[in-house]
Structure prediction request, 336 residues.
Amino acid sequence: MDQVTFRSDTVLSDVHLLLPNACHLMKRLNSVGQPVFTSKFRILRDCDGKESGGESPVLESTDASNVPCDEDGDLEVVRRPRCSSSNRDAVCPIILSQSAATLTDEEEDSDEEDGARDVIKIEHTMATPLEDVGKQIWRGAFLLADFILAHASMFKDATVLELGAGTGLSSIVMAMVAKMVYCTDVGDDLLSMCQRNVTLNKQHFEPQDADLDFCWTDAEIEDLHDNTTFVITADVCYDDDLTDALFRILYRLASNMRHPSTTYISIEKRLNFTLRHMDVSCEAYDHFRHCLDQLQKMTDGKMNFTVEPVKSSFPQFFQYERVEQLELWKVTAERL
Prediction:
């Protein structure tokens, strides 16, 4: 394999960079030659109404009388003896090539074992160009997943649409509590990865048979129109054009759905130093807030939108850094 190089436009998610005790296993190359990794994320069920995994570590004192020291008082470190001969088994290198995403029997058995331990397995890429960041996992998806699990009763028996699903993490978590989840994004390569992740986690729900061409059927369009009450999206507002497209789609969906809808948008306020301002700014976030403001002020005589922030005081079910820049917004749409 050629040497991996990082270009100036390469983006790496903090989830992959800072996740403690993580072992990212490279599995294959996708159809465009990008390395695909597999990561496992455990659902922390012992929240007891408060955040789990977000507390500071407890420092315990050690009895000095039990600590081995030399005659000068310095700590003695007992080193492991070196073996003259290695007992390790011989390991042969595996040549990775571009291949279709197919599950082996061994992987399926492993998935069933993981499901018993509340583990979600996600395939993803790392260090991608900006246009492929949807193939990575971002903290906004974890924040949204936390909210879903913390309010499972609210989404029970609901039909939910996710826009810009990426790897499908939020949709997979939503499928654990909702009646029907439509997981959408753009690009066959990304949708194929998302479909594989759904299959990898089928032990958590009953996946529907998906069209390999990722096309909508008339029955699905009718069901989406008649029954959808929630729309979710995570970390898709990193480009002004994408943000504008998102809000246009939200307006069109809300205007055509039979029932009033509620949209939850998670976003991370990313600070960047720009030469234009010669200062730290959040241009993508500022544009997102501008779009929220314009949506709430809209007076077209057809729709009324209410925008409000959601406090991040709900429990944390996944191990990640819930930084203060992570935000969740609620947009309620009603027809006049």
Q: What stands out?
A: The radius of gyration is 23 Å. The CA atoms of residues 159 and 180 lie 5 Å apart. DSSP finds nine helices and 13 strands in the chain.
